[in-house]
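Human:
Care to share another protein and its fold?

Assistant:
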Amino acid sequence: MNAARYGIIVLLLSFFALGFVRSDERTIGRVNFILGDQGAIRVHHPGNTQWQRAQLYAPVYNGDRFRTLQESRCEIKLGKKGVIRIGENADLVLRYNPKKKTNKSTLSKGRFWASLKGFFNRGSFLIRTPTAVCAVRGTIYSIDADSTTKISVYDGKVDVGPAWFAEADSVPRVPQQRSLQPTEVPGPTEVPGPFEVSLEQWVQIVAGYQIEIRADGKYSKTKIDPSQDKKDDWVNWNLQRDGQK
């Protein structure tokens, strides 16, 4: 075997080992923007044993897990019209089926922004946090996940339910017998007071409103305070990226 052919084989094997070439799955998007120090954004591809440094314009695959450190941000472009972003100290597993146009992702912690207007002709974008799950069909919204979950809607509507609504093979089932039959999503209603109501069914949040769900399942729904948003660099940056400011 001559040296040139040997070099090509070694290069291809290296690409497969590092996750740059994946024949088993099609790409679902690409890394579109990176902000932060070198190595502040890491990605783990399914089947790989090691984390890698996220690379600008690198392909994103179904099941990829992203982690960010302090003072870092990452934007991922899905298809032609979908954009999601994660802020600092975030942990996101992205599960998206481009054929069915359905998403069942998990945000363990951190800040998340989705700009999905015109992204879905059908299907839905579902994301699970430690205390809630939300499903959308093309909108702009933000999620802050920690010991509580806060979801703010800036355009369109978001349906929010308890975390067990997102049960799947990778999520342990609760011991109680609960029906997963579809239920009617109620329209916007006023909550009697802060954290007095338990989230036990889908609640619809419309543009201009936000909801916060605690670990005990109780929630509070309020209007978004524009004066507070003006002080929030994360919100302002995302609105600028979306071309709304």
Remarks:
- DSSP finds three helices and 19 strands in the chain.
- The longest strand covers residues 102-115.
